[in-house]
Design goal:
single chain; 245 residues; 0% strand
């Protein structure tokens, strides 16, 4: 079955699944809600923190914006990951494999979907947060690199979890790992590379360098390579888990 046919077959099913599950709806709107919290919460809190602790959040604007950059794909990836777990728990995934839906087309849909959605959600969330504006072309590049982690989260949840309970546990662990690059903000550049194995480090550091007006292309290219490499490893594991089932 062609990829477009897979989209027509599975797309409406996914929309019904999301509409029936309040948790999935919460995940869908979470990234945009986070951007709004940043937009209105940071300016409100800044003078109070400056008065009480002597901390000016305006000095950490790129760090706060990179949090928006990283979390939107994570939430979208979690959404798609749990959709796949639902299919596996209900036996839908096994049934799909004996239909004209080819496994490559299914995988392209399932991995491409979170990446594409995460790209557009991130591209919307960044200006929605509103307190740091980069040129549109740079926002597109940052969103494109960050969006790859949406596919990584979706694959990690489904490839490593046997059910939704395990999926929640794995998702919590992933959230901790994905937050590691934010710690790198406080480290000098050579030491930052210690967290270079974390795929979200690269869009974060690219965004920081964009905000500082520093060269970023080398980091962007390496980031694409790291993210695609991790996607490839998880894809092979996911393929094995489907074949074994």
């Amino acid at each position: 079955m062609k990829f477009t046919s897979v989209v027509r077959s599975l797309g409406p099913v996914d929309l019904r699944s999301v509409s029936r599950d309040s948790l999935l709806l919460l995940i869908t709107g979470g990234s945009l809600a986070l951007a709004l919290v940043m937009r209105y919460g940071v300016p409100f809190v800044t003078p109070h923190l400056q008065r009480l602790l002597g901390v000016d959040l305006r000095d950490y604007t790129p760090l706060l914006m990179s949090f928006v950059l990283l979390m939107a794909p994570a939430m979208v990836g979690a959404l798609v990951g749990f959709l796949i777990l639902d299919e596996r728990d209900d036996g839908t995934l096994t049934a799909l494999l004996v239909t004209p839906v080819s496994l490559p087309a299914y995988l392209l849909y399932r991995i491409g979907l979170p990446v594409v959605i995460a790209f557009f959600v991130t591209l919307l969330a960044l200006p929605l947060a509103g307190f740091l504006t980069l040129p549109f072309g740079e926002q597109v590049l940052a969103a494109a690199l960050s969006a790859l982690s949406g596919g990584i989260v979706a694959l990690a949840v489904t490839a490593l979890a046997a059910n939704k309970v395990e999926g929640f546990a794995i998702l919590k662990g992933l959230q901790g790992i994905q937050a590691l690059p934010l710690v790198a903000w406080f480290l000098p550049t050579p030491w930052q590379w210690l967290v270079g194995f974390v795929p979200t480090y690269w869009p974060a550091v690219v965004y920081w360098r964009m905000a500082a007006g520093e060269p970023f292309w080398g980091y962007w290219v390496v980031g694409v390579g790291v993210n695609l490499g991790i996607l490839s490893l998880l894809l092979r594991r996911f393929h094995r888990s489907i074949s074994q089932s």
